[in-house]
Write a structure and sequence with these properties.
The protein has 121 residues and is of the alpha+beta class. The protein is built from five helices and six strands. The N and C termini lie far apart (37 Å).
Length: 121
């Protein structure tokens, strides 16, 4: 069994909400406007009111930079044990087919510089 590094342990503690906030802040500093559709608690649990075939798997975050002419859709996941659903995979394929850049980002993608590199492309 391999031991985790200090950074790997730290990445595993980052929640999806924390990572999303950090990505939105970094994106803002790099000229991106962003949107996230938040769930609301109802009598039947947490729901995001959407309509249409893309709604159920819509990415957590969309970042748009008109100066770079880029639209990025990002699914935000915890470091471990958090996989895409079939609905998310379907929506990602549709968005990629329409020319969007689509990513699944985890805390290690931020700490290792991959998110910043992608936003600066």
């Amino acid at each position: 069994m391999t031991r985790l590094t200090e950074q790997e342990r730290a990445d595993r503690k980052v929640t999806g909400a924390e990572l999303q906030r950090m990505v939105m802040e970094l994106g803002g500093m790099l000229g991106y406007a962003s949107v996230h559709f938040r769930a609301a608690q109802t009598g039947r649990g947490w729901r995001v009111p959407v309509e249409g075939p893309l709604g159920k798997g819509w990415p957590d975050l969309v970042l748009v930079n008109p100066m770079r002419r880029r639209t990025i859709a990002a699914e935000i996941k915890r470091e471990v044990d958090d996989q895409l659903t079939p609905d998310q995979e379907y929506v990602h394929s549709v968005l990629r087919g329409a020319g969007w850049s689509v990513f699944v980002w985890r805390p290690s993608d931020l700490t290792e510089g991959r998110i910043q590199d992608e936003l600066q492309r």
